[in-house]
């Protein structure tokens, strides 16, 4: 056979014609009449009925074989029962496992096909072992791989232009020895130089791609980000700055109906100084871009009230009042029923308490708080002062927003300024909205997903008849945003206290980019990665390159949806991030909102945040060790270490107790500031530990075991010092609270923790350092009521692993530790 056809229609062409031919050959094996006749009877099926055709032994040949050759035909019978198109052939013996051919000829000396037989169907291939059991597929295995040709001798160390050109000249000397031209104007020389230049470019690209595969050598920040993600390290792309903005209004701005939109929608731009502009400006990107910084509101403002511009504090007919450091509750002078829980207020000192001048107000005495309670009514009527009938509104704010400084409410100026009484030194500002740095770009076209252009190579197959549909490489569509830097921000949690709402974790910040596709207008959301995205999730990743440009990467229909060819995309994103948007207090002046009632826009406090992207050197130093962070609590020490990751926990200790059929992990937590381990905190800590807990272990959060101390000191004073003054200072030094200057006492809750030994010498040294103390001597040093503890003899007290020493010296709670002083000398 000189050619091979995949589609064989020859049998159908002669069916029903005067010509005949072999359709197939069947070997009778298990159905043979006797054991000796197995594989010796062949049923030759013809395409058409034999009719008057008579074939004899001289017309049939059995050819082929490797071990068994020369098989002869013993008998031929025309017809097999009613099947007149079957010729029964009996051979003298069966053949081996190699293929055989049955051939029809005119005579032993004439190899031509019999008359009226198609020459193409006068021969058929068959196997004697067709019915033999085999563990393999009956489909023939083809081994048609081409023989390997010897490879040319090439110097693969040649990587640059000169070495590549030298290698090609040497090769040409072998292929065309008669070609000796070296003139640069020669066509062949020009071709070699062009190929050497192309090879140099390809070599450079190979080296660059090879470098991108290693953390310590890659140049692309996108490559650095992906490599770091392999070890579960998220690169910090920085974050934008946040600030509280005060909107003063001349009249109340309230929606007419409950379903009306807010008066100040989310993402309303607020800008720094713009020349020749009022407080309200048009929302035009080109005009706002002239400002040094543009912020946008992060939450809706449902209403603005003129009375909330400045709300004075109420002093209950007293004078020279102040809110102490750490305050979380205060009265406002007036009826403010529109204050709501969750609203932010800013306390501000508006005049200098010693001079009465606004210019002398301390800008450091400003703080934002988020309200947790508002009390403006008493039995349905406005809350009033029962003495003066003045209306009062009580407000409370979160402990995390506790006042960080004493806030003067009313004062009397110095004598040189007239000794005048100032009833209002500080006020509370309402109409506060949180804003963050970044200006929105709407509907930037990113182009259309192209049609597939590159066909993938078909899989290697030796079957020439195997036909598969062409496969195309998915089109590359990784558009870039035109403006930079893209804003990076962590989603806002509206329940956080005012101070915490300004803080962001750069590693959790997301690029503020949203895509829409057409046709359909489907939204696509930005994610840090697509590992948790399903095949139908319309999500993408915005990867930031070293120059700050953002490149969009879509999914692959396994992790994230791959957009279809012909899909057009448009991007809405924000521009502005990092420390470039940091601003000082009273810098914002304009709001892009058509609201004439707004008469002033300002930020009483400077912005917070604005972090640069993490440097490549920092990533290379930190990423290789990121996976070493314990992410599963196995031992007791693991539970203690993981508990400390919660911001509220100073230290923790864990205990395993068998509580029936399983173990329960009891976690004892020591909170910062000695905060109580109440149900709310226990729930937060248990929820935080849940992702680290091993299956089969219960979890319970308990308070520490506080051990009160009993300390008695004999103190001798120097002449000229008042005993009461020195005693007050000693109590402050050894106290459980911070001194007036902010210095924590020796037994401050944050200075004592689990199992910590209490030494006597630091106590004596602290007392000795107080001015006026001549000498100090310990008389009692033990656990409260435990006469056997023996602290004086050992000069220290030890505690178990779940115990914390306590010396509050609070007369209301004597069981929390007692400190007695016997003072002699002095005045």
UniProtKB/TrEMBL annotation:
This is Putative baseplate assembly protein.
